[in-house]
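Subject: sequence -> structure tokens, single chain

Hey, anyone have a minute? Need the predicted structure for the following. Not urgent.
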Amino acid sequence: MAVDIESLLDFEDLSGTFTGTDVFVGLVLGFILLSAIGWLYKRTHKGTSYTQSYVHTLIMMGLVVDVIMLIVGSNIARAFSLVGALSIIRFRNAVKEIRDIGFIFFAMAIGMATGTKFYMLAIIATCVIGALLFIMFEFDWFARPAMSQILKIQIDKDVDFEELFDRTFVKYTQSAELIGIDSVRSGTVTELVYSIILKKNASKHEFIQSIKSQNGNQKVFLITGYNTTDL
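Reply:
Had a minute. Here:
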């Protein structure tokens, strides 16, 4: 006996607010759109805190919101019950990048749209918002023209460092400012922390080697792009 697939998908839940077709279309379309959001996040991520589990969580969260919206429907009492049930959830992991929060809301909005059967809205919103985010990433909108960097130099504690690196800084940097002094290795070594902006065509390797030739070949640590990474 042939099975009528369409009739199987057209059953109604006891609440009468959605059908099997609504569930299937919402979840499949939601998964496709949320996967596109996940790819966009991976493609445009600049920091060092990228994790596969975060992208998986974005997709899962969007699908869960999709299901929640189907459950709630237009029932106000059910909506308040869900709010009370979900309020017990506590998130203890800090979000390292503000941009990640934006993607969380992006995924939730698409999940809400597919869960409430605004399929065209979900597709258009994903395409338009995704395209705008991709354009901002590709053209590097709002980026600062010169990125400051952190330079850590270790020298012997008895060395006079006031003007020790001035010539090197003039040659390789646009600006160099001493922002910290620390005593390390049980007081035998002084660590200097500078905020610097390298010249456009300056060689980082030559710059570090020049510093090493003046600090007795002690440790030199240059943190590049720290404004766009999470340390």
